[in-house]
Design a protein that fits this description.
Helices cover 70% and strands 5% of the residues. By secondary structure, it is mostly helical. This is FimV domain-containing protein.
Length: 542
Amino acid sequence: MSTLRSLTALIVEPQSGMRANLHNMLNLCGITKIDHAVSSGTAIRPLKNKSYDLIICEYDLGEGQDGQQLLEDLRHNKLIPLWTIFIIVTAERAYEKVVSAAELAPNDYILKPFTADNLLDRIARAIEKRTAFLPAYHLMEHGNLLEAIDICRAGEAKYPRYAIDFLRLRAELHVILGEAAEAEKIYQELLQTKAVAWARLGLAKTLFMQGEYGDAEALLQTLVEESSKYMDAYDWLAKTHEAMDQLPKAKEVLNNAVAISPHAVRRLRKLGDIALETGDVDTAEKSFQKVVTKAKYSEFRDPEDHVRLVRTLVKKGDTQQASSVIRDMEKSLGNLEKTPACRALSSALVQKELGNDDKVAEELAAAVAACRDTAGISNDLRMELARNCLEHAFDNGAAEVMRDVMSNAADDAAMSKAMNVFEKAGKKELAETVVKESRRQVVDLVSSGAEKARQGDYQGAVQLMTAAVHKLPDNPQVVFNAAVAVLKYLENIGWEGKLGDQVKVYIESARRLDPNNPRLVPLTELYQNILKKYGVKPPGAN
């Protein structure tokens, strides 16, 4: 096929002989621009800097991640665009296990043994479908979700064989936009024609978004009973139980899910968190131990997982094992920015259990200092640090840490959770003071950025708001105004590719954090107008 000659491909296969066979097969298909990787780690490194049209990945990658886990990492961390075709190669004996527990499905599976003609047929089918969806994907990549919805409507008529897929994508776009009622109508329409599991799951999501937890719970419960290996349904059922303050039920659901699909790190982490909150230390320890073990093969390791395990071991009274986990963190993750804060808090927890108050105070002070200029530390870890500061009369440290937590609160629920840290420690007045300071911090940041833009200092506005997002990535007001600052710079100074990519991320974050914000539509329209002004085409567009 002549259309395949321009495609770029990545083969992820640990066996040299199979790599050569796949390479030759792709050559026979007309694909010559081919790179190789022998593991998930060696695949992720080039993908951070280069995109491919096609990835052919062996399921069994040996020690570390398998092909399905690699796909989940790539999509979760947005390292591959929507139009990248991902095909998993697997032995027949593993096929049922791979397909049944797949969290994020690849474009296709191909069973060994197969011929070049088999592979060509699968690639051709995937390319044909991608061509139909490419206009919508390009619009989505550039944040123009409303126009992408219109393209989906047109696609339903233009490509009847993909009508269901276009309906599904249109519903998912409404969900992203926070338009749960619109998405619900589409899922109800789909269910009238075919009771597919993903449509029922989509309907449950829209019910959840509208606060109809009881109806969502009933639908999800039925779904997991009838489709016992549909893993997303378990996650949403657990999430619904959690929203209804039914943590033991949420833990049970996640336990069942882990028994079916034991390798999903994010689910294991969630199970550990809920188990620890419900006092089930044994389950928490097992879960966090698996997270730490499995994550060491990922390029996206997080030292906060070690802190979770340390907390659990300390609660169990096993300070010796907790200290060993801290040493492992220092050795294997010492190069990461978050590690000093995580190490100091972990050490403080161990010293607290050992009764070394002076050492606890020293480590808490080190953790607070490390948090000061470190991005990416979760609000949960900061709140754990603040709780320990308050327990040891280090109120100033707690206030400093919680000021950023409250400034970074995405909604009222997050702010209430932060307030609860002070109230449980009997520090309600301190909480009220920190709330006022956090709100002032956000107002001052946003006002300063807006003032610089009004004065024509567009570069200064971008620098200030970029730093603000770095510090407060979950505050919708900060993220929204950072997007405005970058757009004003591009509109008045000129197009810069790096800033163009940056503002796209800001718009996506603002939509995720506050999907019902009415100012998102004009913001997106301004972005689209700037692209047209400078003749900038979406990635992958001809």
